[in-house]
TrEMBL record, chain B:
Similarity remark: Belongs to the binding-protein-dependent transport system permease family. LivHM subfamily.
One BP term from GO: amino acid transport
Protein known as: Branched-chain amino acid ABC transporter permease
Record's keyword terms, sorted: Amino-acid transport, Cell membrane, Membrane, Transmembrane, Transmembrane helix, Transport
Transmembrane segments: 12-29, 34-53, 59-82, 94-115, 135-158, 187-206, 226-247, 259-279
Species name: Chelatococcus reniformis
GO molecular function list: transmembrane transporter activity
Keyword Heme part of the UniProt annotation: no
UniProtKB/TrEMBL annotation, chain C:
Alphabetized InterPro entries for the sequence: AAA+_ATPase, ABC_transporter-like_ATP-bd, BCAA_Transport_ATP-bd_LivF, P-loop_NTPase
Molecular functions (GO terms): ATP binding; ATP hydrolysis activity; branched-chain amino acid transmembrane transporter activity
Gene3D superfamilies: P-loop containing nucleotide triphosphate hydrolases
Similarity remark: Belongs to the ABC transporter superfamily.
Organism classification: Bacteria, Pseudomonadati, Pseudomonadota, Alphaproteobacteria, Hyphomicrobiales
Organism: Chelatococcus reniformis
Domain ABC transporter: 7-247
Pfam families documented for this protein: ABC_tran (PF00005)
Keywords carried by this UniProt record: Amino-acid transport, ATP-binding, Nucleotide-binding, Transport
Protein name: ABC transporter ATP-binding protein
Automatic annotation (TrEMBL), chain D:
PANTHER family (UniProt xref): ABC TRANSPORTER PERMEASE PROTEIN, HIGH-AFFINITY BRANCHED-CHAIN AMINO ACID TRANSPORT SYSTEM PERMEASE
Record field: transmembrane: 27-44, 50-70, 77-96, 102-124, 131-149, 183-201, 233-255, 267-298
Predominant location category: membrane
One example GO MF annotation: branched-chain amino acid transmembrane transporter activity
Statement: the UniProt record of this protein carries the keyword Glycoprotein: no
Localization per Swiss-Prot or TrEMBL: Cell membrane
Lineage top rank: taxon: Bacteria
Pfam families per UniProt: BPD_transp_2
Keyword Transmembrane: yes
Species the sequence originates in: Chelatococcus reniformis
Name this protein carries in UniProt: Branched-chain amino acid ABC transporter permease
Automatic annotation (TrEMBL), chain E:
SUPFAM superfamilies reported in the protein's UniProt record: P-loop containing nucleoside triphosphate hydrolases
CDD domains, sorted: ABC_Mj1267_LivG_branched
Top-level taxon of origin: Bacteria
Annotated source species: Chelatococcus reniformis
Protein name as annotated: ABC transporter ATP-binding protein
A matching Pfam family: BCA_ABC_TP_C
GO cellular component term, pick one: plasma membrane
Amino acid sequence: MNILRQRIRRAAALFAVAAGVGAALPAAADDAKQQYFPLATFRVGAYASSGIPVWAGTIDYLRYINEVEGGINGVKLFWDECETEWAVEKGVECYERVKGGKNGSPVPIFLPHGDPITKALTEKSVADKIPLVTIAHGRTEAIDGRVFPYSFPAVFTFWSEASSAINFIAERAGGKDKLKGLKIATVYHDSPYGKETQTPLALLAKTYGFEDIQIPVPHPGNDQSAQWARIRQLKPDWVFLRGWGVMTPVAIKTAAKVGFPVDRIIGGVWSGSEEDVRPAGKVGKGYLAITPFPAGADFEILKKIKEHIVDKGKSDLKDLKSFGSVYYNSGVNEAIIAVEAIRTAQKKFGARPINGEEGQWGLENLNLDDARLKEIGAYGLQQPLKLSVRDHEGGGAGKVLQWDGEAWAIVSDGWVKSDRELLLPLIYERAAAYAKEKRITPRPDPTSN
Amino acid sequence: MAFLIETLIGGLLSGVMYALVAIGFVLIYKASGVFNFAQGAMVLCAALTFVTLRDQGLAFWFAALVTLAIMVVLAIAVERVVLRPLMNQSQITLFMATLGLSFVIEGMSQLVMGASVHELDLGIVDTPVEVGPILVSQFDLVAAAAAGILVLALSVFFNVTRIGISLRAIADDPQAALSIGIRLQRLWRIVWGVAGFVALVAGLLWGSRQGVQFSLTFVVLKALPVLIIGGFTSIAGAIVGGLIVGAADALAEIYVGPLLGGSVSTWFVYVLAVAFLLIRPAGLFGERAIERV
Amino acid sequence: MAAAPFLEVDDIEATYEDVILALRGVSLRVEEGAIVALLGANGAGKTTTLKAISNLLASERGALTRGSVIWKGRSTARLDPAELVARGIVQVLEGRRVFPQLTVEENLLTGGYLRRPSRAEVGNDLARIYTWFPRLKEKRRIRAGLTSGGEQQMIAIGRALMTRPTLVLLDEPSMGLAPIIVQEIFEIIRTLNEDEGVSFLLAEQNAALVLRYADHAYVLETGRLAAAGTAADLAAQGVEALYLGDAPGAAAATSSSAQQF
Amino acid sequence: MSSAETEAAADFVAPGAARDWRGLRRALPLGLLLAVAFVIVPLAGTDYWFNAILIPFLIMALAGLGLNLLMGYAGQASLGTGAFMATGAYATYNLLLRLPDIPLPISLVLGGLIAGAVGVVVGLPSLRIKGFYLLASTLAAQFLLEWIFNQYGWFSNYSTSSSISAPKLAILGQDLSSPVGRYLMTLTAVVAIAAVAARLVKSQTGRAWSAVRDMDTAAAVIGVPVARSKLSAFFVGAAVCGVAGALWAFAYLGTVDARSFGLDRSFQVMFIIIVGGMGSIAGNFIGSAFIVLLPILLSQVSDRLFGGTVDAGQLANLQRIAFGALIIWFLIKEPAGLAALAERGWRRLRPSGTAGPERGSRPGNTGKIF
Amino acid sequence: MSASSAGPILELRDVSLSFKGVKALNALSFAVARGEICALIGPNGAGKSSLLNIINGVYRADEGEVVFDGAPFRRIRPLEAARRGIGRTFQHNALFKRLSVIDNVLAGLTRHSRTTLVEHAFGLPRDLAESRALRARAEDIIEHLELTPHRGTVVSTLPYGVQKRVDLARALVGRPSLLLLDEPMAGMNQDEKRQMSRFVTEANAVLGATVVLIEHDIGVVMDLSHHVVVLDYGRKVGDGTPRQVRNDPDVIAAYLGTVH
């Protein structure tokens, strides 16, 4: 045990050195007047290929706000990066490291950007009063802000994703009544994330009368011959592909191998990026994907970012091919929502760095209507979004993209809405069950009554 | 019935791909007693290097040669920096060192070549061929053929060439090999180099199947049960083990999975492998040492 | 015999794993063309001495901590085993240690690789080995692990001869072999010595046997030199009495052999 | 109790040790350390230190202890650590959920025991196979258990995400959900278990384990029940890992799903004991410090030194390389683990011999297991 | 002891064993009388160690049976053999190399322990009492075999001769009725051999263990043993008192062969 003591002493000394190094660097004197916005990035590890463009999108937008718009109402943003490798405990460590703010500037919003990390932070964030914005991931029942005050699965939950995908199939089939009798197979990543859509799909299948087939693919999914052999046997009309990482290209390739038409596969949000399709090569042509982050560099705001950031060599992106990609745009989207929430909060609390509690208010009063989206230049890139205490999701629609071998083209008729009215009661029920299990008293909704 | 056969064939063809990765392990384990967990990282490194070179516009063969050269340099470095200082250490220590090594290789590869996903097109057509009612993937056939040629080449190498016979000698008795002037360390470098070559082939085939990205390192997980079944020291075992694992995996996914309500392939072949082990404690082809006391 | 020093071992001390002292101040010399015997009981340090000469100690976490080994006027301290083999010293390990999975012929071939010989040379060398050990020719395609103990000893010696050595260090050639086979092997050793001029340093427990073939002999006892002299002198003194009748022994080596009454 | 024996039991306080003068000298630093850990740290620590450093450090050291008992003391290599941790976490969760009247500490212990029982089943192949083959066979358990917890909703009370989350942490009405509370709860569990483990390895059970590890044939021949020893090691090791898993889920993360206890976790724990030192109790803490703290340290140092100037992705890659290289470097430098290194350093610092010859002469290759 | 205490403590009947087709033991039969010291001699590879391995269950005989203490068996588990009172030392060092001398000896007492894991874990009174008792027994043997100065030392760092003594202590501490010693004096110098011979004699005379030992040093064998069995390539070529064996022409032929 002496050894242990000695060891700890040594470790402490090392940390002291590290801290000393930190202290030696001059702290920006006016940090306290700027808005801290820490980023828990993942640039190495298994998911680095998606992380890199995502964070580039976020950082480029933040830089754009700082350099072109002079900050949010004059409050500039500054950030640290902390590498998580998409691993839970590293994510938690990063969160703990940054949650106290920096040099007096508090954390308004935290982007965990990973389903497992989000779950690990759900309760901590309540204790610390730091809102987590988790676009297109996180717990679906966190839509109910009365039970999950600091979780914001904004824009597009997995349930909405499933419902929108079904509605797109209906659109193609010529109406929801045409869903009856269709066979729709869901090929999913066998993980909590992948299984999350089982419940809504079962409900939707019951409602619309299609046949719901669930086919799991074990992590990481680099061999799917058996799954697609089954698809060939079952002959579904559509396949809804909910992959993650390498699973998607392998699925597309294997589908081609067994002769399943690729244009009958609709990928989910995390199966719908260039990084997912490109490795599949030629056979990926015609593949569909539903996403809240439409790809493309033609949106106003992307043009501005290109002009002021990318072309000036200030972009975080090293491989400019990714500019305007789904992941890049998702990063931009997240940053837009965070910035707009801060802006909203500033309206109430003043043009100064805001803290997490104020950030929560900003988010719950966020209203991005078409007019505001046009002002930002994000019309078409970001769907109209109105959040409230009862509704931390807001949008619930996606666009369907089709891969032409080189790039994505939007093929849906605008935003494909989900059947939120149908799903919400079930979601609230689940939130209530969670509250009961955790003995949480839901907070009252100030806007009702 | 046709479906069963089709599944079986598909499984067997996948099995060849697993065997390909397993062979890399067998080579190194045989010659130096190291269970090289960095094999997955080597696969990634080889594929990533190759793709990056191709993206730079190098011709296929030239890129392959340069990659091979890099793998050989890596092998030499590993022997010098890791194996030699750890000579005579326990196998578990060496195993852990290769885990550390895999961090280094992964980090280096991505540091130099980035973490983006690359497409790797080997120009192999991937439309299915119908043989009667049975659908067979052309790509898998080509991959299996490539693996077959590799195994053939390796067995010629091991049975005919000077280096190959020396390597088998080392596997049998390193000290005796040393005593008659076989240069252990040089042969280690060679065998790691050969394992690098195998990693390149595996990397190319797997990479063109799933794209070149970090998750290539996970193919190791499929190779482990192959090794358990086939034994750590037998190339023939790796092939047979690969076929068994591939077939069992595919059949289990179709016929066992639905019974249990989920995908079983993460564990099924491992459980199968343990069952094999209980019957043959040193794998199908592994030699069991008699304990002398 | 010329006075030119062939192999000179001077006052060596060896340890295993930095703890176990296996040799304490052993000195010996082998003249060119001689057969020298190294006698001693089980664990007296014979094997360690041979491995100290062939530089194989390192592979067992052993080390030479004092003294020097001079081969043809040069210290061997910095040479690795392969370089020593290239310079003409080869060791046949105790317990034969053939490569069991390799065929008899492949076993022999491994001995030739260091020189990177041409195909013709290899053929010649093999032919010569087969003339000395005709039995091996019959079994050339059989896996060495399946041959008898005597044949394995022949394989081991043949394999060593494939390196074209000038000095063979032979560790316990009689171990575990029937007397008739032992005699056959020793006859071959004598032939090799006389016809090919190969020198031998033989570690043996069977003193009576080996002294009939050797020119000189050294006797080890618990890692020290206990006696030395010409084979004839030692045989006359009744060397058995020196260490066998109530024999001392030492250290971690594991061999043993037939004992004399 | 003789003085030499006390000394042999030196890693932890043994009853009666204090009577002995030398024992006292050994016990004193440990007592001080515990006092600091229990009194000073809770007063001085920040949330960050508790939540991100101390709690995971302690829990991983505990998991290391579990594996060390199994692998370092009993010689049974296992990569099933993650599965044992998952079993402990899910078992404790279900006990708390379904039998809410049982107090938390008892649920933790019961959860550990259930993990131990699973460990015994996982250990059955060890009666036939050893070495890498055994190591590989434990992977079957690792993957199978991970799958079961993910697959069958019952284990997670049919939560949508198959994840389990911490109940209210309270002992005797004392709320422990604050960072300090969770730290103290973890620390108490770790210290208590480590004390029991220290006893155990010096007992007849521990001797039987070491006998099986060092030479199982000889062990059987002299009358050590080899099969029972192996299985008891699997039981105890898995139980300790199980408690670690439950703490990981409830005291550290709050919410986990089975993937938190995947193969990576198993490897991480194995790193801890190999880097720290197999067959050493203190080694687990050293190894855990290395594995848990080093990456954080690397990331903090490099952020401070290069943050903003070097590309963040490259920096992350460099950290990974540095981490891998350090592992190799330490293995080369001290294959018996940092505990042995530290022990040597300690002796050098205090040459006047609290350490008798028996502790002084531990051989260098103690890391060998197969 | 069983009813058969008048008969031989150990009897081998037509025991055969082969490894991969090579016969290590060939229809071997002999008996060891209660209370004697019996030496097995023969060249290396004669099958002596294999024989001991069959007697205490490490190997299984292909044919024939072993009768120990009146109970016949062909295959016995090593643990069961130990329980019945067969102790054993090893030719190559088979000590628990990371444990100290006292711990090695204490491990030899495992089968005399009656306490459970739980008692060990929490240091319950029964465990404390028992470990005191066991420790006393171990200390006794250690003192007896003059290992006291080494009692706390990790065995792998001890000189070879001392390790051999630890091996003997570990076997003796369990009070075996039959003690199998595999080359207990290999690698020892004259003094050590004399000392070891004394210990073996004492184990036999004082502790009452029947001893079967393998030894190459004929001088030692002749002084020490009451009974000598000569093996050669798996066969028995001689069996009798030292004097008888010394003068047996078959033994002389098999051993000295054509050499002399």
